[in-house]
Each structure stands twice: as structure tokens, then as C-alpha cells.
Amino acid sequence: MRYPTGIKKGQCTSINHINRGMGLEYDINQTNEYYRCHGIAVIHKKPTPITIVRVDYPSRREAVIKEAYFSTPSTTDYNGIYKGRYIDFEAKETKKEYFPLNNIHDHQVEHLKNIIKLDGIGFIIVSFTKLNKVYLLEAYKLIDFINNEKRKSIPLSYFEQEGYVVKVNYHPRLDYLKIIDDIYFKGEKL
User: Fold this and answer.
1) Whether the bond into 4 is cis, omega within 30 of 0
2) How far is the C-alpha of 52 from the C-alpha of 158, rounded, in Å?
3) What are the start-end ranges of the E strands in the chain?
4) 3-state class of 11 per DSSP?
5) Of 72, 122, 182, 183, whose CB count within 10 A is highest?
6) What is the pLDDT of residues 24-49, one digit of tens each?
7) How many CA atoms lie within 13 A of 161 on its CB side?
């Protein structure tokens, strides 16, 4: 399919490392593109649901959204399929040595609860940017912390004890599916 900017959707493109370090979302998107191109998994960033109210059309290629609003609360950032299982997760960054719980919303926690209930794979990936560390925390451990702790943030020590370090590599950039393999598919051969 051809899009106005000339981008062909559905093709694997070479991964561009010019903007490396541009943030967690960029690294995850590059990783997901690697997974897709190598037939490992199909995981996409979910679009934010917005309702467009007003658009200016100076020309077809230069349409500009002038007014829009969030139509419904979004769930999590990413979803897809891996080894026949539904996968769904939220990605967050923090500059602190803790993860503020106000960075994840109640409807997102409820969404992750539903994923777990239906035997899907749910988790969060948190980047501690000042420490240059990235952790994967399973959704049930996030929910357990929220339900049993009085704190308004999750300390780094909880991620160190209960989470998994996501190593930064060349290809794929953040190989979080290696951790998912260790948790959910250990010993399976495909």
C-alpha cells in the first residue's frame, strides 16, 4: 500500500540507528520492527484514540489537525501476538530512582488484570533514564504492589528484586521477548 509520504506499509525496512537513545518508545518500536521482520512476533504500538473536530487542508499532503480530543481512555501502549499468545504491555520512563504510580492509570491496571484473567501475557517496561536501566515487571507483580503497599511509587529495589533487567543490544535493541521466553515458554521447542 502506498501512503502519501511514499512509505510502503508492510515492508521490512533496515533499522536506522541514527536516533539511538531517543527514548524507550523509539527503542521498543525498533525492537518490534526487528521481531516482525524476522518472523518472531507481531507487536504494534496502539494508536491513541482521538476524535478529530477540525482539520485545515492547505493541500492534500499538508492536512493539519487543528482541534481534537481524546475520545476514550487508552488502555496500554503495545499489543500483539507471540508464540500463539496475546501480549499486551505499557512502556514508561522515569528520571527518578522510583516509578511514580500516578504514571499508570487505574483503567490501565484494570486492562492488565483482564489480560491476565484471560491467560494473556501482560507486563510493564520501565526505563530508569538517569541510571540507564530498563526493567520488565509482570502485571501481576505490579497489581500485587498496588494492592498491598501504601506507597505512591515503586522503588527501584522492587524492580531489582521482582522484575527482570532488559538488556540493551544491537539487534534487537531491547530484547524483552527473551525474558518472556524465560517466564512463559521455558523448555518449549518451536
Assistant:
1) no
2) 41
3) 42-45, 50-56, 64-70, 78-82, 85-94, 98-100, 121-128, 133-138, 153-155, 164-165
4) coil
5) 122
6) 999 999 999 999 999 999 999 986 66
7) 8
C-alpha cell at 128: 530508569
Q: Count CB atoms within 10 A of the CB of residue 93.
A: 15
pLDDT of 147-166, one tens digit each? 999 999 999 999 999 999 99
For residue 25, give the H/E element and its range.
helix 24-37
Predicted confidence (pLDDT) per residue in 73-114, tens digit? 677 889 999 999 999 999 999 999 999 999 999 999 999 999
Give yes or no for residue 168 having a pLDDT over 50. Answer: yes
Domains and their CATH numbers in the chain: 24-184 (3.40.1350.10)
The rounded distance, in Å, linking the Cα atoms of 118 and 99 is: 27
Query: 1 by DSSP, 3-state: which?
Result: coil
First-to-last alpha carbon distance for the chain, in angstroms, is 32
Q: Answer yes or no: pTM beyond 0.85.
A: no
Looking at residue 35, its amino acid is: Y
